[in-house]
Design brief:
The protein has one helix spanning 2-29. The protein has one domain (1-32). The protein is an all-alpha fold. The protein is built from one helix and no strands. The protein is 88% helix and 0% strand. Keywords: Membrane, Transmembrane, Transmembrane helix.
């Protein structure tokens, strides 16, 4: 059960990082 929760936490962290990068790129290159 602990390993399952750790796996979900890792996936959530990756999703948050990807979303943050996408938002950053939109703000960086979306101004043009």
């Amino acid at each position: 059960m602990t390993a399952y929760c750790a796996r979900i936490n890792k996936i959530n962290i990756y999703v948050i990082i990807i979303r943050a990068i996408n938002v950053y790129l939109i703000f960086e290159y979306g101004e043009d």
